[in-house]
Design a protein that fits this description.
heterodimer, A: 5 helices, B: 25 helices, globular
């Protein structure tokens, strides 16, 4: 069973090693999931991602800023059941503008330089996720929560 | 890649495919040594078997429930048993089954064979601790051979192998096992030779027994021993044991039998033959370029090599590594029978007498000098019994395990711990003692006037008070002394709480157990059935005695605590109220598991600069089936139990016998100490209460009042 520093290491490792996360949004009682590229700030409590405005997720986020994200390191092998870790992230988003858009873009492109033209496109919104908690799942069923101190 | 190879074709093969044992024998065979005819089931067969059965993920999950360093030995044994059951219940892929079956049939037909492990990674470890993996002798017919090959496969993950997982570099993805299927030599005389003596490099040692080698290797038959000079090859000394037994082929497998009188007076081999055996070891040494340990036998008066491996130095010469103690816990059936007689007939009664003698001393009447003397006497008594506990009581637990494996081999149940249901209902002391508690609760339950009076005045009628006095006697110091206000209040509050709850009694479903027992016995006939019954009897005794010993040791430790209390009372000049001592539970735990930190260790760090941790779902081991929900009651000392409310989940570091009385009230039991055969799990199962053991830092991660779900099927505890 992990303690808080070990859990934080697991989260840090997941957020730096994984390029993609599953984003869950919701509108009018209808849940919806999307695969997104993301990047995390060094303190782990802010995440950024990019999405073009005509998308379903953009429209959902405009109506409800509460989101959940799933980041995991599974490899689609049997051993995943013992070895893979996953973090379910709870939080809310807001679109970054002005100065904040530039710094968020920089954070995002540092991890995903190959997505530069996509993320810099004028019709692409940059979202910042304010993390409230990580629910860390390891060893198949061991679950511990890390709540961000505010 | 080949799944089956004749040993003669294994010479040029990779060790990773055929394993060390096969390769060594194959090479010796080509060099002219007499080795039995054999087939090698390769690691490729292992790979295909585990892949088709999805076993890799299952093994990884079994070993990944928690950090390996957090696993106690009992949990490792439990994990090994679960893995073994998985292998037993996994069918061979059809094409592999056909290929192996045909191969074995064409070479051996229905003639008896030995099925031996040939692990690629075992060199360097097995020489020090032979028997990490399993071997089966006198196996007849392809179907039985395949069953046993599967068990040898499973023994790659035996409890012993898992202890040495680092040295063996065991991983679910990388490790594999080969198996040697060897013609059975009908040996009348056999033995081992150490090309270099472990204690003197100028000497060699030859050991020999009548019958098969198995008895020598597992320690049930004491061998004749010859010490030889390596330089001259001559015998320096011969030590003869009292020769009583030998291992022989039975109808299937082997049997331990008494040695006929005409053999017991003679060593199995002559001095000249001992020299010939040593020459064999020297020959193997010259061939391999390093001293060898060789297993040998005489078949039709010809000296055969059964296996040969390099001599390695014992990795734990000073015994500082607890693993060697753990390995010594594995006992044979014969050894356990002797141990049972000694524990039941001599040790426990002696312990009871000593505890009684100590309890009868009138401590306040002693002068200070006598009191000091009494402290020393009791310290010595406790030390003495703790030593006996570790060396004689703990190994008795293996009786239940031996039966468990036997039961699983015979029945192949879906639940690897089904066998424990045949071990319950043995009249354990801790349950008998609880009966008195139930009787008092029943009085309150049926006589509400009495209950009201007890609740109001803190006293019952004369009959009630007399039984209550008896209860205080029975539980010794558990509730504090009889006069203690806190102890009395606590126990009355507990009894009233029990009386508000419907009568619960241990036993589970007797009809279910009877059906299981019938099913178990239906797998055997004649002598085999008698043996099964005897083994079950042994296991039931071991299970019961293994629990009773805790109570007696507890009494002795309480006796010591009392005298120390009396001393400190005099020193401080004021009385001290004994609201229940639980301190010795930690000692019992340390004896059972030398690696355990006393008191369950330090609390984990639950926060960092940026985060606060909250555990949602904790994974341990399923130790008592069932599902329960309720508020947690974290118990660190007996007095905590007086506040116990019916339906609460008992959360503790380790349930010790002095806490047993509260279990019938509990909705579920959660403990840090892990295992299926530990006290808390045994008692919870007796009462049919869901139980999860092996939750790391349980008393730190769970707080009194937390709403818990206890899943005793999956071994999971969830906090709401």
């Amino acid at each position: 069973m992990e303690d808080a520093p070990a859990l934080e290491r697991i989260v840090r490792e997941l957020l730096s090693s994984q390029r993609l996360a599953v984003l869950a949004t919701e509108t009018r009682g209808k849940p919806y999931t999307s695969l997104i590229a993301f990047a995390a700030a060094p303190d782990l409590t802010t995440l950024v991602f990019a999405t073009p405005r005509p998308t379903r997720k953009f429209s959902n986020l405009s109506e409800n800023a509460r989101i959940s994200l799933l980041v995991d390191n599974r490899s689609n092998r049997e051993e995943d059941f013992a070895e893979a870790a996953a973090a379910t992230i709870l939080g809310s988003v807001r679109e970054a503008t002005g100065e904040e858009r530039e710094s968020s873009l920089a954070l995002f492109l540092e991890k995903h330089p190959y997505l530069s033209s996509f993320a810099r496109s004028p019709n692409c919104a940059i979202f910042r996720v304010e993390v409230e908690a990580f629910y860390v799942v390891s060893r198949f069923q061991s679950v511990s929560e890390l709540h961000v101190r505010r | 890649m080949k799944v089956l190879l004749p040993i003669s074709k294994a010479v040029g093969e990779d060790r990773a495919l055929v394993g060390g044992k096969t390769l060594a024998l194959a090479r010796l065979g080509t060099a002219g040594f007499k080795v039995p005819k054999a087939l090698c089931v390769t690691t490729e067969a292992y790979r295909r078997f585990v892949e088709s059965g999805g076993l890799r993920g299952a093994i990884a999950r079994e070993l990944g429930r928690k950090r390996f360093e957090d696993m106690r030995w009992e949990e490792i044994w439990d994990a090994a048993l679960r893995i073994r059951t998985l292998f037993d219940r996994t069918a061979w892929p059809v094409d592999l089954d056909t290929e192996l079956r045909e191969g074995v049939r064409s070479v051996f037909g229905d003639r008896p064979v030995a099925v031996r492990s040939s692990a690629p990674g075992e060199d360097g470890v097995t020489a020090s601790f032979a028997g990490l993996h399993e071997s089966f002798l006198n196996v007849k017919g392809p179907a039985a051979v395949l069953d046993n090959v599967r068990r040898v496969f499973a023994s790659l993950w035996s409890d012993r192998a898992l202890l040495y997982r680092k040295e063996l570099r065991l991983t679910p993805t990388g490790s594999a096992m080969a198996v040697l299927v060897q013609e059975m030599i009908p040996a009348k005389r056999s033995g081992v030779v150490f090309g270099v003596s472990p204690s003197d490099p100028a000497q060699a040692v030859v050991e020999s027994v009548w019958g098969l080698n198995e008895g020598l290797v597992d320690g049930t038959v004491e061998p004749d021993r010859w010490i030889l000079c390596r330089r001259t090859g001559r015998v320096i000394a011969h030590h003869a044991p009292v020769r009583e037994k030998r291992v022989e082929p039975g109808p299937a497998g082997t049997v331990l039998s008494s040695l006929p009188p005409d053999l017991s007076g003679h060593p199995p081999i002559s001095d000249d033959e001992a020299c010939a055996v040593f020459q064999l070891a020297l020959g193997a040494e010259a061939f391999f370029g390093s001293p060898q340990d060789v297993e040998w036998c005489f078949g039709n008066e010809v000296l055969h090599v059964l296996q040969s491996r390099p001599v390695t130095t014992r990795s734990t010469p000073d015994g500082s590594d607890d693993r060697s103690w753990y390995l010594s816990l594995k006992r044979s059936f014969a050894n356990l029978k002797t141990l049972r007689t000694r524990v039941e007939g001599e040790l426990l009664p002696a312990m009871a007498r000593e505890a009684e003698a100590l309890a009868s001393v009138d401590l306040p009447a002693l002068d200070d000098g006598e009191l000091e003397e009494e402290v020393r006497r009791r310290e010595a008594a406790v030390r003495n019994w703790e030593g006996i506990y570790k060396n004689e009581f703990i190994p008795l637990a293996h009786g239940a395990r031996l039966f468990g494996q036997f039961y699983n081999d015979a029945v192949a149940p879906e639940d690897p711990f089904e066998f424990t249901r045949l071990l319950s209902g043995t009249g354990m002391l801790s349950l008998e003692r609880n009966a008195l508690l139930h009787e008092l609760a029943q009085r309150l339950r049926t006589d509400r006037l009495l209950a009201d009076r007890v609740a109001r005045d803190g006293r019952g009628d004369a009959g009630f008070e007399s039984r209550l006095g008896r209860l205080f006697q029975e539980y010794g110091d558990v509730f504090g002394s009889e006069g203690s206000e806190a102890g009395r209040k606590g126990i009355l509050s507990l009894l009233l709480e029990m009386s508000r709850r419907p009568l619960g009694a241990p036993g589970g479903s007797a009809a279910d157990s009877a059906a299981l027992r019938d099913r178990f016995f239906s797998r055997f006939d004649g002598e085999a059935r008698d043996f099964a019954a005897e083994l079950l009897g042994l296991a039931r005794d071991c299970y019961r005695l293994r629990d009773d010993d805790n109570i007696f040791l507890g009494r002795l430790q309480v006796a010591l605590a009392r005298v120390v209390e009396e001393q400190s009372r005099r020193a401080s000049g004021r009385g001290r109220e004994g609201a229940g001592r639980i301190g010795h539970a930690g000692t019992i735990e340390t004896l059972n598991d030398p690696s355990a930190p006393p008191g369950g260790g330090d609390p984990p760090v639950m926060e960092s600069a940026s985060f606060l941790q909250r555990d949602r779902q904790l994974v341990g081991h399923p130790a008592g089936p069932g599902f329960a929900q309720g508020p947690a009651r974290v118990v660190r000392k007996t007095a905590d139990l007086f506040d116990f409310r019916a339906g609460e989940i008992l959360v503790c570091d380790a349930v010790d016998p002095n806490m047993t009385f509260a279990i019938p009230l509990a909705g579920g039991v959660v403990e840090r100490r892990g295992g299926m055969l530990i006290h808390g799990a045994i008692i919870a199962r007796e009462y049919g209460i869901p139980c999860v053991t092996g939750i790391p830092d349980a008393v730190h991660r769970i707080r009194t009042g937390d709403m818990l779900s206890v899943d005793g099927y999956l071994g999971i505890v969830t906090r709401a």
